[in-house]
């Protein structure tokens, strides 16, 4: 099953899994606040340095790095190295795909939002 963006249900599960951790969700929300909705927050458009992301969250730098890695692997954020700094920002395509997924589920569109369980052999 796929959405309009052809993301498999498993990919959505990975994104939701990454965002299910409270600290990762805080990081995601902080990164999401750096860009206007629907814009690509590229390195020239206020990405956040990993050190800045951790400010005011009460999380150690090594833990921030771990959470950034998990969010990146799930496709929720993008990262770019600039010298010794690592910048990160929300992946706008994934943000839109998540919004579309939730709207499809709310509208009752089973092709995009409902996972059918395989029939059990008796």
Q: SSE string, helix = H, strand = E?
A: HHEHHEEHH
**In this structure, how is the largest beta sheet organized?**
3 strands, antiparallel
State the secondary-structure class: mainly alpha
- Any idea what the shape is? elongated
Give the CATH H-level superfamily.
Winged helix-like DNA-binding domain superfamily/Winged helix DNA-binding domain
The CATH topology name reads Arc Repressor Mutant, subunit A
Helix run count = 6
CATH architecture: Orthogonal Bundle
Oligomer: single chain
Mean pLDDT across all residues, rounded? 76
Low-confidence stretches: 1-5, 113-122
What percent of the residues sit in helical stretches (DSSP H or I)?
40-55%
Number of strands: 3
Biggest sheet strand line-up: 1-3-2
Radius of gyration: 16 Å
Q: For the terminal residues, how far apart are their CA atoms?
A: 25 Å
Question: Could you explain the architecture of this structure?
Answer:
- The protein has 122 residues and is mainly α.
- It has helices spanning 9-19, 22-32, 50-53, 61-73, 92-106, 110-113; strands spanning 48-49, 77-82, 85-90.
- Mean pLDDT is 76; it is low at 1-5 and 113-122.
- Helix 2 (22-32) packs across helix 4 (61-73).
- It has one domain (9-112): Winged helix-like DNA-binding domain superfamily/Winged helix DNA-binding domain (Arc Repressor Mutant, subunit A, Orthogonal Bundle).
């Amino acid at each position: 099953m796929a959405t309009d963006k052809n993301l498999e249900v498993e990919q959505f599960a990975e994104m939701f899994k990454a965002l299910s951790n409270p600290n990762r969700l805080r990081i995601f929300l902080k990164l999401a606040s750096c860009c206007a909705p629907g814009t690509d927050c590229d390195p020239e458009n206020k990405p956040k340095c990993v050190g800045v992301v951790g400010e005011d969250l009460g999380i150690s730098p090594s833990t921030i790095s771990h959470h950034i890695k998990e969010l990146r692997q799930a496709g929720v954020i993008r990262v770019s190295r600039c010298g010794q700094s690592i910048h990160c920002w929300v992946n706008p395509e994934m943000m839109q795909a998540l919004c579309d997924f939730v709207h499809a589920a709310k509208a009752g569109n089973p092709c995009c939002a409902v996972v059918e369980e395989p029939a059990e052999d008796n």
